[in-house]
Every structure is written in structure tokens, then in C-alpha cells.
Amino acid sequence: MFQQFFTPAVQHTLDLMGIFVFAISGALLAVRKNFDIFGIAMLAEVTALGGGLFRDVVIGALPPAAFTDLGYFTTPLCAALLVFFLHPHVERIQSAVNVFDAAGLGLFCVIGTTKAYTYGLGLTASAALGLATAVGGGVLRDVLANEVPSLLRWDRDLYAVPAMVGAAMVALCIRFDSLNPFTAGVAVLTAFVLRLLAMRYHWRAPRAWNRRSSGVEVDEAST
């Protein structure tokens, strides 16, 4: 469905741009963790392709696009090599990387939702897979790097919520037969802007109601 809005060449270019930026975030984390070149490449590949692979396996789009299009596989490797040799320079433009990462988040939550619906899933399941497409790679990245996934941490800016909003908007547009290039673009833009605002103003999800302020207590108990 989403493919009807763009030519195959434009769709492919957008996919590769999102994959490249996601791969950079994975490679940078690998450098911070002092991984070797294989670890850097592995984390770049997993971050860039993990969400899409999960979606394609669930909906039965086999073999997944990551294994049928060489560009999908080699783009993360190019990002890994860039970070391997130039990571101090890449770190200095982290803000720009974050902006493109937010754009990829918005794009992939919309693509994931529409592709899942095209393969016969219901609206709720399609939106869930749209979310998984956008954030799944980051979850796998953090798990492999032995970290609590960022989207589960209260001290991190909202990441999953913007993708959820974008995916839900697409599902609602499908429900009311109003999904078109304009509404799809609005969904992408909404997720993108929400993520930027979350980074700018440090928006975070609420924690349990009436919980004790135990963060300090736990830290003190563990020392």
C-alpha cells in the first residue's frame, strides 16, 4: 500500500537512508562499548535491520527484504566502516544523527504498519508491527550490548511513543479509508516532530502512580 505512494526507486532510497542512520547509532554504541570491528559491524546490522526482519518473518514476507536486496545488507556495513575510522567526527555531529534517526523512526513506523496490513493483518496488529519495525532494531542493539533497552528506561527521552502515535494514525486512516500520500506524510511528520520535541524538552513517560522515590535508595543499597 505504501509502495503505491512512491516509485520503487524513491521507496528504496528512503529505506536505505533510514537503514544507514540506524546503523550509525548501533555502530556508535559498539565503539563506546569497546567492541572490535566485527562487533561494530554486527551491532550496525542488527540495529538497522532487526525491526524489519522481525516484521517480515511475522507477516510471512519471506525471504525478508534484507536477504533479497544486497543494498539492505551492505548499507549497514558502510555505516560501520565510517564509524570505525571516523567515529570521533561522527560523535561530533551526534545531534544531526539524532535528527535523521527521528526521521527514520517516523518513516519506518508508517512503512511497517502499511506493509503488515497489506499482508492481511488487522489494524491493531499492523500498528503493533509498525512500532516493532521502528524500534525493534534498537531493542536488539541494547540487548546485545548488555544494556537495558532504551525504550524501557524512564530516564530516556520518549522514543517508542512517537512511533506508536505514527503507527496508530496510519491504522486510523486505513480504518476510515483515508490513507493517501498526504495522510501518510502527516503520520511520518507527526512521529518525527514528537521525537524531536521529546529530545528537545526531555519528555519522558510517567512511572507508577504514588511510587516511592526509591531510585536513590536502590543505588545506596547496591553500593
UniProtKB/TrEMBL annotation:
GO terms for cellular component: plasma membrane. It is a multi-pass membrane protein. It is found in: Cell membrane. Residues 13-87, 99-173 form the Glycine transporter domain. It comes from the Bacteria. The chain crosses the membrane at residues 12-31, 38-58, 70-87, 123-144, 182-203. Keywords: Cell membrane, Membrane, Transmembrane, Transmembrane helix. It holds the Pfam family Gly_transporter. Belongs to the UPF0126 family. PANTHER family: INNER MEMBRANE PROTEIN, UPF0126 INNER MEMBRANE PROTEIN YADS-RELATED. This is Trimeric intracellular cation channel family protein. It comes from Streptomyces albidoflavus.
